[in-house]
Amino acid sequence: MTDRLLHLNAFENFSPGNISSGLWRHPSDRSSEYKTLRYWTSLARDLEHAGFDGIFMADILGMLDSYRGGPDDALRTASQVPIDDPVAVVSAMAAVTERLGFAITVSTSYEHPFLFARTMTSLDHLSEGRVGWNIVTSFLDSAARNLGAGEQLVHDQRYDRADEFLEVTHKLWELSWDDDAVRVDKQAGVYVDPAKVHPLRHDGRWYQVPDAFIAEPSPQRTPVLFQAGSSSRGQRFAAEHAEGLFVHGTRPEVLAPIVAGARDAAVALGRARDSIKAFAVATIVTGETDEIAEAKYRDLLDYIDYDGAMVQFAGPVGVDLSTYDPDVPLADIESNGAQFSARFFASADPDRVWTLREVAHYMGVGGMGPTIVGSGATVADELERWAEVADLDGFNLAYAVRPGTYEDIVRHVVPELRRRGRLRPAPDAAGGSRTRSTFRENLFGAGATRLAADHPHWRLSL
Amino acid sequence: MTDRLLHLNAFENFSPGNISSGLWRHPSDRSSEYKTLRYWTSLARDLEHAGFDGIFMADILGMLDSYRGGPDDALRTASQVPIDDPVAVVSAMAAVTERLGFAITVSTSYEHPFLFARTMTSLDHLSEGRVGWNIVTSFLDSAARNLGAGEQLVHDQRYDRADEFLEVTHKLWELSWDDDAVRVDKQAGVYVDPAKVHPLRHDGRWYQVPDAFIAEPSPQRTPVLFQAGSSSRGQRFAAEHAEGLFVHGTRPEVLAPIVAGARDAAVALGRARDSIKAFAVATIVTGETDEIAEAKYRDLLDYIDYDGAMVQFAGPVGVDLSTYDPDVPLADIESNGAQFSARFFASADPDRVWTLREVAHYMGVGGMGPTIVGSGATVADELERWAEVADLDGFNLAYAVRPGTYEDIVRHVVPELRRRGRLRPAPDAAGGSRTRSTFRENLFGAGATRLAADHPHWRLSL
Q1: Does residue A47 register a pLDDT over 90?
Q2: Best label site of A21, A164, A461, B184, fewest CB within 10 Å?
Q3: What distance in Å separates residue B259's CA from the closest CA in chain A?
Q4: Does the distance separating the beta carbons of B118 and A211 come in below 8 Å?
Q5: Residue of chain A whose alpha carbon sits nearest to that of B202
Q6: Which of A85, A94, A115 sits opposite B118 (nearest CB)?
């Protein structure tokens, strides 16, 4: 990579708690302001000013209720609950920014592609081309239960339906309206030329959409497509659809084959190797010096909520971890999920005995991803090493405390990365530019507002 | 009514065309800016400054395609197409205002109440209590076709399902989380007290929602509930649910029994007679003098698009009006819809021969509602007369041209109504107040942020 730019997204959610557990209790934390416009407009302004590429909004549609057989610990520890709809906050952030992108997580399992496509087109209109979509198929039984889907589809079937969902949205976004369909010709009395608007005639297994799209094309048409699946079915899905791949791992060496696999699969489908931008989740704790950063980290550790970490961990592990002593080694728990997770954490440090307490200690600040602690230079070194080893294009930076984590990154890490030529020039710097930019241009360069010509979706037709 | 305040909403939609037809072609019209943030933030600021209570956003989920057997004329004349999602634009408008309400139209037919309730709660959080919901059940076959619902439910069944939809949303908004459920107690480590969050255990005909809501209560909890149904089933629905009734008619004498019927039905359910605020649609063409206003109106008439008016009229009439000569009297067309519409227009003027051309002339500026033409004083007289005769609480004011219609109302009509004590004091006037206000307080008075105690929904329990 050597001189490749690094792209930075804030990894946020519309909730008082995301992947770190219990840190809302830190004296400096202001996560309870999550439901105010001021929190989001101020964050968006600051991140854009610093040169971030986007805000990545996670979402879930049910409570995490595998721990102690119910949602009580999730509620008490604010583990991704309460949670609001990320769609609702985008236009306010767009109103105070010009270049920042907004990737929002929406499941293909509970919305109809026709309505969803219109919502995204609307946001892309209002933001002048700055919307992205993190495609998820949903894994929570609690969501399926309350959304009337009864039993969930099995994993691979969810992906099959998602494939068709993406087929429908592509037809709506890219194929239904020609570029010159909207004429707004007051003299001729033609707002839209009907000959340039085409019915979908889509008659699939999951969806029937006979007619044309009801919204006109937006600047990007298709939002920037992100995906995070790591199963082999998920990887195939990414190769078919994703422009951004969101990965998590304890070390860059673990991510390297995953990223290489995604790029190989994309190339096998005729796409350029760099047509997928790879983002790793990371949490940064930084300050003026390594010592100050280390002290901040030690202070944060005091606020980790063990139960909160277990709430987040219990879902993937698939057993109720409240019935185990915190000092039991993960490897001693007999479930496929526990064994899988034991291998996951062994990759971080094979010599450590990964008890549940140690897992909570690790996950409490930064979840399953790395927590990078140090001065701006130390963190920049580490980000560059991760990018080099794993062939990454950027990072989804989670917060430990709000908004302090982002303030620290902007103060200490961003200037260092910019000095090293790893970030785009600041919007208001000499040589920088105040020009508007679409989200896809942020990631793929000026002019790259539309879906790339080698994207597999272009094989579709009406 | 005598000294009752009048409430004003702008009747808008997220499209270049609403109920007037062809007027986007007027030289002053800027409807093609509908997809920009600037249009909406500027409109919201101006309306709030003038003392409007809200913006009422209409919506449809399919194209109007009864005329000439397809959507071509709707597209050409921008008859409610292209159309974006009103949910997307609310937070941006909320960010630049403090008191203006936002009523958005959402159908109960194509969304799940669990997800929809969260979206509204999110907007109510961000706007600090300024969201309303115009409840519709959808009537368009084109929407049902593309949203996978196949054949539509018959009319009364749609209302039955809507009743249950409202039951679920009430439980989510009002009953699932106690007022003191969210503690944010950093010392005790309790963000939410799980004992104060209650599962719905809703097991109905259309929806199963066993668990608790995932979002915390917003300032209003329930958005202000609007409804526009005029059938007897629709009227019963309004009495059960609505806080705002949206009616349209050619003369106030026609509306009087409809409004009285709604109030009677509400009283029969134990509600106060004024627990439903009645809004009539109206389009105002105004200027410094009656003569200037009349000249403006005559100028507007030149831009009416006959086909566009017929696109909008063809749906309710239920026959393809393109096969009829424009000079055929409506009463001569043999369909129930045509006969119903003939009576509707006869109520405006029984002596006029209501040919299709005359209908287009009437509907082209202001749709099925009245177009009130004159100086500020003349218009204020007429609005007062309508309110007096029909027992109205306010008006949903449609535009003829954008944003000129609203600019004219603000300049000529608002000061006159304010002089007469019909509007709340301007936010920045002496005696006025800059204090924030929720949407429900705008309509029902300071302190009335929550659903009234006599609302039938309070009979529901978990």
Answers
A1: yes
A2: A461
A3: 34
A4: no
A5: A146
A6: A85
The beta-carbon neighbor of A75 closest among B82, B87, B194 is B194
User: Which pTM does this prediction carry?
Assistant: 0.97
Output the six-digit token pair for A358: 């140690």
Q: Tell whether A404 lies on the interface with B, counting CB pairs under 8 A.
A: no
Please report which confidence band the pLDDT of residue A427 belongs to, taking 50, 70 and 90 as the band edges. Answer: low
Instruction: Tell me how close the Cα of B59 comes to any Cα of chain A, in angstroms.
Output: 11
Exposure string of B166-178, with b = 16+ CB inside 10 Å and e = fewer, is: bbbbbbbbbbbbe
B121 vs A: CB within 8 A: yes
Residue B462, both tokens: 């978990």
Q: Which residue of B has its CA nearest to A146?
A: B209
Q: B35 vs A191: CB contact, 8 Å cut-off?
A: no
Q: Provide the chain B residues 283-312 that lie in CB contact (below 8 A) with chain A.
A: 305
B86-143 pLDDT, tens digit each: 999 999 999 999 999 999 999 998 889 999 999 999 999 999 999 999 999 877 888 8
Confidence of residue A235 (pLDDT cuts 50, 70, 90): confident
Q: Could A126 and B87 be called an inter-chain contact, meaning their C-beta atoms sit closer than 8 Å?
A: no
pLDDT higher than 90, residue A239: yes
Query: In this predicted model, which residue has the larger pLDDT, A233 or B307?
Result: B307
For chain B, counts of helices (H) and of strands (E): 16, 13
Which amino acid is located at A278 in the chain?
Answer: A
Write out pLDDT tens, residues A145-176: 888 765 567 778 888 999 999 999 999 999 99
User: How confident is the model at residue A198, as a pLDDT?
Assistant: 98
Q: Is B45 on the interface with A (CB under 8 A)?
A: no
- Among all chains, which residue has been given the structure tokens 């609702």? A88
Give the per-residue pLDDT at A151. Answer: 59
B337 touches chain A (CB under 8 A): no
Half-sphere exposure of A92 toward its Cβ, with a 13 Å CA cutoff? Answer: 26
Q: What pLDDT does residue B429 have?
A: 57
**Which tens digits make up the pLDDT trace of B202-245?**
999 999 999 999 999 999 999 999 999 778 888 899 999 999 99
Q: Which two tokens stand for residue A84?
A: 């609001």
Residue A239 to residue A267: CA distance in whole angstroms: 8
Residue by residue, what is the 3-state secondary structure of B93-134? HHHCCCCCEEEEEEECCCCCHHHHHHHHHHHHHHCCCCEEEE
Amino acid at B170: H
Q: How far apart are CA A238 and CA B148, in angstroms?
A: 27
State whether residue A183 sits within 8 Å of chain B by CB.
no
Architecture of the domain defined by B7-305+369-459: Alpha-Beta Barrel (3.20)
Which residues of chain B lie closer than 8 angstroms to A114, CB-CB? 61, 146-147
Answer for the pair A410, A417: CB distance below 8 angstroms, yes or no: no
Would the CB atoms of B194 and A72 count as touching at under 8 Å? yes
Per the structure block, which two tokens stand in for A87? 């769609």
Integer Cα distance of B278 and B259 in angstroms:
7
**Ranges of each domain in chain A:** 7-305+369-459
Contact A211 B148 (CB under 8 A): no
Chain A residues with CB-CB distance to B40 below 8 A: 126
Rounded average pLDDT over B14-42: 97
Q: Look at strands B224-227 and A182-185 and give their pairing.
A: unpaired
Q: Give the pLDDT confidence score for residue B121 in this predicted structure.
A: 98
